[in-house]
Design a protein that fits this description.
Elements (H helix, E strand, L loop, with lengths): L4 E5 L1 H15 L4 E5 L1 H5 L3 H10 L4 E4 L2 H9 L6 E3 L9 H5 L2 E5 L2 H10 L3 E6 L14 H10 L3 E7 L12 H15 L5 E5 L1 H6 L7 E4 L10 H10 L10 E6 L2 E5 L4 E2 L5 E2 L4 E6 L16 E4 L2 E4 L9 E4 L11 E8 L2 E3 L1 H8 L3 H6 L7 E3 L1
Parallel strand pairs: 1-20, 2-3, 2-9, 3-4, 4-5, 5-6, 6-7, 7-8, 8-9
Antiparallel strand pairs: 1-10, 10-18, 11-14, 12-13, 14-17, 15-16, 15-18, 18-19
Length: 370
């Protein structure tokens, strides 16, 4: 069955990005790639296989169902579960041979009751105030590991709160110092805290493993990170976006001057126009905020969105694009000819961020590795 919208993932781009991060962190530091949220919209199984093929040592997921999908696909690499696993499902951690992030004592107690060996990583609270164990509560966890039979403290982890969104990294450095002090109190086998931005900017954050997220897919964490890298890094860092989102033209119609297009009559033609109908809408992840703002690419030219983005349909103006035909290829994110629309440009139109743009591309849309 032919799909009317689909996503292509560039294997060459993924290979380029992972080679870059390996060159930054060196051979001795584990490279752990994040494939949560359907691999930031890139397809979890497809992306995980590409990551492993190109040198990733571990994979990071948020939820148990994501880890199960990877194991069911035959992926045997170490998997690090970063999100909460309900107490009744903790037996699957050992069954699937997973590493688990822990920040509740109740989780450790339940894992010990199950009676199977499990490697856990304590999430340390250093200033982000999401998941995490505060310094004053650490002694209770430390005492638990003195008496446990089955649970091994494999690692400690933390997450930076403000390393991406600023040119002033003093808060991140204060988190790093707190992480070092708290980890020293536990003496784990491994430590890790670096995300994409930290891996590009601060070698002192590498420790035993780095957790690469959005930049494994060729996107910058933020404009500030890109500027910081340009100003501070000794390395030439160039990322290659891996994702292209495509659809096709399903109708072309002539709309006379003065007629309205779409719900709410928000767009009125000021000339005789040629409108192309696209079979994609906000259900698919093509945000309603793009109404009357965004462009798509057809025949290497920009076609502006006209009217409101609908649940399953978007209308674009192809009056100035010659020779548009039924089922012509349309690029929503990516390049065509000399033109390109980045996830960052899309995010600006949608008043969002590149993370959200790609992660919200509907999971039902097929992903193809090219």
């Amino acid at each position: 069955m032919e799909n009317t919208t689909f996503v292509e993932i560039s294997s060459l781009a993924i290979a380029h990005n992972l080679k870059l991060f390996r060159s930054l962190v060196g051979a001795k530091v584990l490279l752990s790639c994040c494939v949560k949220a359907n691999a930031y919209g890139h397809g979890i199984v497809e992306s995980a296989n590409l990551m492993i093929k190109n040198g990733a040592d571990w994979l990071n997921v948020n939820a148990l169902y994501e880890a199960e999908a990877l194991r069911n696909a035959g992926i045997t690499a170490p998997i690090y579960v970063m999100g909460y696993v309900p107490l009744k499902d903790l037996h699957k951690i050992s069954e699937l041979d997973l590493r688990l992030v822990v920040y509740n004592l109740e989780t450790l107690v339940e894992l010990e009751k199950i009676g199977k060996p499990v490697n856990v990583h304590l999430k340390l609270e250093t200033g982000n105030n999401r998941q995490g164990i505060r310094d004053e509560d650490l002694s209770v966890f430390k005492e638990f590991f003195v008496n446990t039979k089955f649970i091994q403290l494999e690692g400690t982890a933390t997450h930076f709160a403000n390393i991406e969104d600023t040119l002033d990294h003093s808060f991140a450095m204060s988190q790093l110092e707190k992480f070092k002090k708290m980890s020293d109190n536990l003496n784990p086998r491994m430590r890790h805290c670096a995300n994409s931005a930290a891996a590009m900017l601060f070698p002192e954050t590498y420790f035993d493993m780095v957790r690469i997220g959005i930049s494994a897919y060729g996107m910058w964490p933020s404009a500030e990170t890109r500027i910081s890298v340009q100003q501070e890094s000794k390395h030439e860092i160039s990322l290659k976006p891996a994702l292209t989102w495509k659809t096709l033209v399903t109708q072309i119609k002539k709309v006379p001057t003065g007629e309205y297009i779409g719900y709410g009559c928000t767009c009125r033609t000021s000339r005789d126009s040629k409108i192309a109908i696209l079979p994609v809408g906000y259900y698919d992840g093509y945000d309603r905020e793009l109404s009357n703002k965004a462009h798509v690419l057809i025949n290497g030219k920009r076609a502006p969105v006209r009217g409101r983005v609908c649940m399953n349909i978007t209308m674009v103006d192809v009056t100035d694009i010659p020779d548009v035909k039924l089922e012509d290829e349309v690029v929503l994110i990516g390049s065509q000819g000399d033109e390109s629309i980045s996830a960052e440009q899309f995010a600006d139109w949608a008043n969002s961020i590149n993370y959200e743009v790609t992660a919200r591309i509907n999971d039902r849309i097929p992903r193809y590795v090219v």
